[in-house]
């Protein structure tokens, strides 16, 4: 009997190429990725020219955005040429180009680099794309380029699955991919229908093919199509505009004016200057919004984000569940986001998750047997390999996350808030809030006021003080970290995680923790929590201490309160905090919290997603993921 492979296919199969005279051909589809005559000029003629992108880009207003959707990312040539055109058009501050593309068989990084050598004039842009190119894992990948002026959303998987799970409305379509006769799955009627569902009246479309079946399917879906001369040896191609005969209503209820037709916000007030609030503020400001951040503390990172060090890690589940998919997506996005802060707030030392107990050893063995993660994301290590990576003796095997590391959260919060579009108000203790005439006003206990289109609550465990009493179920969990003089232990070269975590030395101190005190509301340091941290550290890493009898009374540290939910998943999205007749979106109130101990991991991606929602732009999360994070699930059932 043949054994059945039950391994979850996290990694996606890459394209298999033949290189003929320097041009890549698909082994599976028997077709070239671009014209042998001149691939770049073909792209400019077929897709950029027939979608009139140059003049449309030049008409973009400040804070506006333009969305292009593409079937078949391939070598990224169409994207690079479009990015170059966007740059040359010099759109105003805050304008964003969104490029949404699906690809079932993505190129490996090596093949992508080789293909890009063919276009020297695109070298600078190609280098940025190569540096940010995502791991070859199934699902959605958001890549932010050019200082936020360009956002690439890549879906690795079947085109139809991508179009069903992505939220966007295109201004222009590139129907690319291999010829319909060679790759019929990409040109089925269901895919063409999905194209119309992501379009609005006036959306343009261009495709290199002139096949009658494709033309008829597009016409049936609401496009007015025409045959025009093709490029090079191709006699004809198709171009058109979406002009449906029936009233148009996208199935995703998302237009270029934002959710449910509400105009995108131009200003926002964010309550909370921790990781969530600071990351969101910077994201919105870079899209052209005026942002005010208020916080009851005296500086950014006053609450749970104030620890001297924090680790970028997740515990990936044995089963590739929706929770694990979110954790992986957030981790990969964060690993692309933080490197720009290397040396000041970000330290890419890698993270070692050790099998600190028999139960954890069994869990890690099952994890490795059940999943096929690319080794560049996570790979198993022996005790000897773990010791070499950590620079100290390690007696257990483990999992190695080479692209992770540790951060200085308060430094990062300060850096995120340093933007001309952001105003900060510290010592602002919110006393009241109300929504009137499409605007929010919040007042402090000292009588100060802030007005804005949009209100976002990022106040961590204190968010319950800002919500109607008893309507939402959030809980604070006390966590105390301990600072150890590096002479008292063997300081590791990387972050080590187990039942506690231990960071490399920073200013001669190593941070360990954190305690998990579910029913303790004491905000002060306690010797009991210090002692617990030391005991668990010694149990996790026997022999780590170079000194005996560390005096817990003299140890430094910090207490923070994590905000958690009943299902230990974050909350992000619209919030109905007014018992009014308005819809959640109409009142433009949002929630970003519930990160627990994973704020450094979840923060960048969820801030990106919520900024998409607030600005009415294509979403960084698929529908299947974002629906699980909505605030409604945390309402108490009455």
UniProtKB/TrEMBL annotation:
Bias (Basic and acidic residues): 240-255
Any one GO biological process: methylation
Keyword DNA damage: no
Keyword list, A-Z: Cytoplasm, FAD, Flavoprotein, Methyltransferase, Multifunctional enzyme, Oxidoreductase, S-adenosyl-L-methionine, Transferase, tRNA processing
GO cellular component terms, A-Z: cytoplasm
Cellular localisation: Cytoplasm
Domain FAD dependent oxidoreductase: 268-612
Sequence segments annotated as region (FAD-dependent cmnm(5)s(2)U34 oxidoreductase): 271-638
Catalytic activity: 5-aminomethyl-2-thiouridine(34) in tRNA + S-adenosyl-L-methionine = 5-methylaminomethyl-2-thiouridine(34) in tRNA + S-adenosyl-L-homocysteine + H(+)
EC number: 2.1.1.61, 1.5.-.-
Molecular function GO terms recorded: flavin adenine dinucleotide binding; oxidoreductase activity, acting on the CH-NH group of donors; tRNA (5-methylaminomethyl-2-thiouridylate)(34)-methyltransferase activity
Residue numbers spanned by region Disordered: 240-262
Cofactor (UniProt): FAD
Segments of this protein annotated with the region tRNA (mnm(5)s(2)U34)-methyltransferase: 1-243
Domain MnmC-like methyltransferase: 120-242
Family classification: In the C-terminal section; belongs to the DAO family. In the N-terminal section; belongs to the methyltransferase superfamily. tRNA (mnm(5)s(2)U34)-methyltransferase family.
Name of the protein in its database record: tRNA 5-methylaminomethyl-2-thiouridine biosynthesis bifunctional protein MnmC
Phylogenetic classification of the source organism: Bacteria, Pseudomonadati, Pseudomonadota, Gammaproteobacteria, Pseudomonadales
């Amino acid at each position: 009997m043949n054994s059945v492979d039950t391994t979850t296919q996290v990694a996606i199969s890459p394209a298999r190429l033949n290189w003929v005279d320097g041009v890549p051909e698909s082994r599976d589809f028997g077709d070239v990725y671009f014209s042998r005559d001149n691939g770049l000029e073909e792209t400019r003629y077929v897709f950029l020219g027939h979608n009139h992108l140059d003049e449309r880009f030049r008409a973009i207003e400040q804070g506006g955005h333009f969305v292009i959707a593409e079937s078949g990312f391939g070598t990224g040539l169409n994207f690079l040429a479009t990015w170059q055109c966007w740059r040359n058009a010099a759109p105003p501050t805050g304008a964003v180009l969104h490029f949404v593309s699906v690809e079932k068989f993505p190129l490996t990084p090596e093949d992508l680099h080789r293909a890009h050598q063919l276009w020297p004039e695109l070298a600078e842009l190609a280098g940025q794309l190569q540096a940010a190119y995502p791991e070859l894992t199934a699902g959605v990948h958001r890549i932010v380029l050019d200082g936020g002026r360009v956002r690439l959303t890549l879906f690795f998987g079947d085109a139809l699955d991508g179009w069903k799970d992505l939220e966007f409305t295109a201004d222009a379509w590139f129907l690319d991919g291999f010829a319909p006769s060679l790759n019929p799955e990409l040109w089925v009627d269901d895919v063409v229908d999905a194209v119309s569902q992501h379009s609005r009246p006036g959306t343009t479309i261009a495709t290199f093919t002139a096949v009658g079946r494709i033309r008829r399917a597009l016409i049936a879906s609401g496009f007015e199509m025409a045959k025009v001369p093709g490029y090079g040896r191709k006699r004809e191609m198709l171009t058109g505009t979406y002009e449906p005969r029936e009233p148009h209503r996208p199935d995703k209820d998302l237009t270029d004016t934002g959710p449910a037709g509400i105009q995108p916000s131009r200003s926002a007030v964010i309550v909370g200057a921790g990781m969530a609030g600071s990351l969101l503020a910077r994201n919105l400001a870079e899209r052209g919004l005026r942002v005010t951040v208020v916080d009851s503390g005296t500086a950014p990172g006053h609450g749970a984000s104030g620890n001297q060090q924090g680790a970028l890690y997740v515990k990936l589940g044995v089963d590739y569940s929706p929770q694990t998919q979110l954790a992986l997506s957030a981790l990969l996005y964060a690993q692309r986001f933080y490197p720009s802060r290397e040396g000041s707030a970000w330290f890419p030392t890698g993270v070692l998750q050790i099998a600190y107990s028999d139960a954890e050893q069994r869990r890690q063995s099952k994890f490795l047997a059940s999943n096929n993660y690319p080794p560049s994301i996570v790979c198993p290590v022996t005790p000897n390999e773990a010791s070499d990576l950590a620079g100290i003796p390690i007696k257990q095997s483990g999992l190695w996350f080479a692209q992770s590391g540790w951060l200085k959260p308060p430094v990062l919060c300060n850096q995120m808030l340093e933007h001309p579009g952001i105003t900060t108000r510290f010592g602002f203790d919110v006393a009241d809030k109300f929504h009137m005439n499409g605007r929010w006003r919040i007042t402090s206990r000292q009588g100060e006021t802030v007005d804005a289109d949009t209100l976002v609550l990022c106040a961590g465990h204190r968010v319950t003080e800002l919500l109607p009493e008893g309507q939402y179920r959030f809980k604070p969990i006390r966590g105390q970290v301990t600072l150890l003089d590096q002479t008292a232990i063997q300081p590791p070269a990387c972050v080590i995680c187990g039942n506690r975590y231990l960071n490399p030395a920073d200013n001669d101190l190593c941070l360990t923790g954190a305690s998990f005190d579910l029913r303790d509301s004491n905000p002060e340091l306690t010797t009991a929590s210090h002692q617990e941290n030391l005991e668990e550290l010694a149990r996790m890493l026997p022999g780590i201490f170079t000194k005996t009898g560390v005096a817990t009374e003299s140890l430094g540290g910090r207490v923070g309160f994590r905000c958690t939910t009943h299902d230990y998943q974050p909350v992000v999205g619209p919030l109905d905090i007014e018992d009014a007749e308005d819809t959640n979106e109409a009142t433009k109130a949002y929630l970003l919290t519930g990160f627990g101990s994973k704020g450094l991991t979840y923060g960048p991606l969820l801030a990106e997603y919520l900024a998409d929602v607030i600005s009415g732009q294509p979403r960084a999360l698929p529908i299947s993921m974002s629906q699980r994070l909505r605030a409604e699930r945390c309402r108490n059932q009455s």
